[in-house]
Structures are given as structure tokens and as C-alpha cells.
Amino acid sequence: MEPVKIFHNPKCGSSRNTLALIRNSGVEPVVVEYLKTPPTRDELKQLISDMGSTVREVLRQKEALYKELGLDAPHWTDEQLLDFIGEHPILMQRPIVATALGTRMCRPSEAVLDILPQPQTGAFTKEDGARVIDEKGQRVKTAE
User: Fold this and answer.
1) Secondary structure of the chain in the HEC alphabet?
2) CATH topology of domain 5-133
3) What integer pLDDT is reported at residue 2 of this predicted model?
4) Which end of the chain is more exposed for a tag (fewer CB within 10 A), N or C?
5) Active-site residue 12, yes or no?
6) If we measure between CA atoms, which residue out of 95, 85, 97, 25 comes closest to residue 56?
7) Is 56 within 8 Å of 81 (Cβ atoms)?
């Protein structure tokens, strides 16, 4: 089986919840703390392509540096934006998870459930108290 890989920031609640959901499926993923070990330019391009996303969609717009650098300006090319992410990995939205079933930006963290190769093994509640998985390992339906 192909390994599950998560581009993780341990300071991020969504990233911690996503990692915990992966582990709740009985899988120990390859954890890449991307602030310490950023993806290469080619790896980042591949992740973006695999997600069917754009470079702008993986930029963390809430990051102060995003505003400081004026990255919302339309004149920046994808290649320039990739340079900024390479220089400042904090600009990369997280967490990104890659499995044999697909690659996703896991915001919200429950998005990972669609690409995990194994089912959940038991109950799971997110850090904010939201119940995601019941005692039988089934996804909890939320009221809309």
C-alpha cells in the first residue's frame, strides 16, 4: 500500500485534527513538517496539480506575510508565487494530504476522510469538541 503523506504544521489545529483522523484509521502517515522541510518546487507543483488546484488556492491568505508581500495583486505569476512559497513555506495552506486515493487540502480536517485507504477505527472528536466519527467508526451527520 502506498504511504499516506501529510504536509503538517503542529501549531495548526486543522493540521493536528487531520493527522489524528489519519491515525484513527490505523495508518501511521509520513509526516512532513513543511516549515522545517518544505516541499521542493517540483513536489509542490505536483501536489497542486494532483489536487486540481491553482497556486493561488494553496496560498495562506490569512498569513500576515501574504499581506505584507502584496500577494493578492493579480500581476504575480504562478512561478513567482511558487518562489514566494519556496522562500517562505509559512505561506502554504495546510494541511495537504496525499494518498493512493487522491490529494486534498484538508480544510476542514474531515476532508481527509474522502481519501483515506482504511476506515475509521473508532470515535473521533475534534479539538474544538465537534464530534466527527461515532463509536462504530462512522461519520457523524451534521445538521445543515
Assistant:
1) CCCCEEEECCCCHHHHHHHHHHHHCCCCCEEEECCCCCCCHHHHHHHHHHHCCCCHHHECCCCHHHHHCCCCCCCCCHHHHHHHHHHCHHHECCCEEEECCEEEECCCHHHHHHCCCCCCCCCEECCCCCEEECCCCCECCCCC
2) Glutaredoxin (3.40.30)
3) 80
4) C
5) yes
6) 85
7) yes
12, 35, 90, 115: which one is catalytic?
12
Low-confidence ranges of the chain (pLDDT < 50): none
Q: Name the nearest CA neighbour of 22 among 9, 1, 4, 3.
A: 4
pLDDT (tens digit per residue) in 31-66 = 999 999 999 999 999 999 999 999 999 999 999 999
What are the residue ranges spanned by the domains of the chain? 5-133
DSSP-derived pairing of the beta strands 30-33 and 96-99:
unpaired
Write the single-letter amino acid at 129.
G
Q: Are 39 and 32 in contact (CB under 8 A)?
A: yes
Residue labelled with grid coordinates 505561506:
91
d(CA 107, CA 115): 13
